[in-house]
Description:
This protein is α/β, with parallel strands linked by helices. Helices cover 43% and strands 19% of the residues. The protein is built from 13 helices and 17 strands. It has helices spanning 10-21, 64-84, 166-177, 201-239, 249-274, 290-303, 308-311, 322-331, 334-345, 369-378, 384-400, 448-470, 482-490, and strands at residues 2-3, 25-30, 35-40, 49-50, 53-56, 92-101, 106-110, 117-123, 136-138, 143-149, 155-161, 183-184, 354-365, 406-415, 425-428, 438-442, 479-480. The strands form three sheets. Strands 2, 3, 5, 6, 7, 8, 9, 10, 11, 13, 14, 15 and 16 form a 13-stranded mixed beta sheet that branches. Strand 6 and strand 7 form a beta hairpin.
Amino acid sequence: MLIINGKVFIIKILFVLSFSLLAEATSFCDLDTDIIQDFKAENMQGLPRIKQACVASEDFNIPADILRQTREMITREEAFRLKYNIAKATNVAQLCAYRIYEDGTCECIEIFDPRSCKGQFYLSGNGSVSLGQGRKEKTTHEIDVQTVSHGERGYIEIRQRLQPLLATIIDAVEFLSHIEKYVEHPNQIMPPISKEVRGNALDLAKFAQAKQKEIDALLLNKQKIISELHRFREKLRSISTPVDATTSSLEANIEKASYNFIQAVYQELFMCLKNDDFEFKGMGETRTNKNVTEFINSIQNQLSTRKLGDLLNSQYFNLGCSEPLLLFDLLGTELRRIELAKQIVGPLLGGKRLQRIVVQLHSTKTPCKSCLIGCCGHLAKDKLIGSFFQVMRAKVAQSYGMNDIALQFMISYNHPYEDKYPFYVPISSQFPSDASILLLLNMKFYNKEFQDLKRRIVEEEHLRLSKKLSELPQKESGIVSIEDVKAMLLS
Length: 491
């Protein structure tokens, strides 16, 4: 019961009432709309929600240096987009890390030398696009690295796929196929916020399992083709006879050169197939030869009756995002994980005691459902992020004798992704205690204009409710019941 004496102190009353109405409620975010909803315990039964991720709340005590660095990454991405006319639909990923000390200070660790390199950007998409006239080099057949000038101040690096990456696709499909590991109540449909009805998370698993069958068939056909090529090369070797002594030097040279050419072409074909280079980009200029092109086309037709570009994509989930590209490039091998761990752990600032290491992947947009599930999957001990964390723990223990270091993987973003998520993500006001929980940081929550707008809305709502309360009929007892005020709040 609330006692009303004449005109009420409305803000205090509403605060107390709102708190009582939301007691024991848990907050969840709909990543598609950024709407936060509160559910009481009895209403959470059967609520589809992700198990291994949470969204930082607006009152999350994020270190100021993390917010500052994230805003800097947003600014340099915008400058990069403007200079090279990068399409809005192209997602851009960056990575940095933080050493957080027991005294609360925070130290940012870039993965490149900021004195010369002014940014390292991973672009979404399933093909490489040339940007600028700068020096261009390839680190592997999968990823194209372009180093382009950044005026007089240095250079920037752009990293893209040369084609769909089967390694990252297989991971994404595997995680989605077993979505019940990552989503609680995956068979339930989210309570509708709008009139639109969404499917459930198990639908994703069904589509992923169908994609898995296509990929399995592709790999089986690849092995058959490799076996046939081996057989033909052995046959070619068996019919090759030593050059007769009476054969002219010119004939001998032509025969030897022809044989070596065919062997070289076959070796390139083998290497491309072995490395899942189904566009045979590793053959370079050789593949432009008309006869070689026809041979490649025949191999591609035997790999799949569908176009490989369609097979290695999906209309139900994205398989060409920048987040898995970054993880694959930086953490794809044990050697890469060790090198990155060395950079991040490094010498401590002024001998301070380390409390936590936060590894941040900043993405233009909210991670899509396949990337979100994929990153949760990679937090497992035997996957990319989990394996990387084990290397970092070992490095911290070796360097500083610490075995209790807290580790956190965080994805920040500043724009929504055009995706329909069939599950909610819980809201958290502090770093998760478990390193296998992914933390999402919506930078809009910490945007001054957004917070000013929200404050104005709250003030207007207080005025509205104050007016409603003053219009309530006065009771002889001078007492207004909780039910009266609840009805007012809902009107």
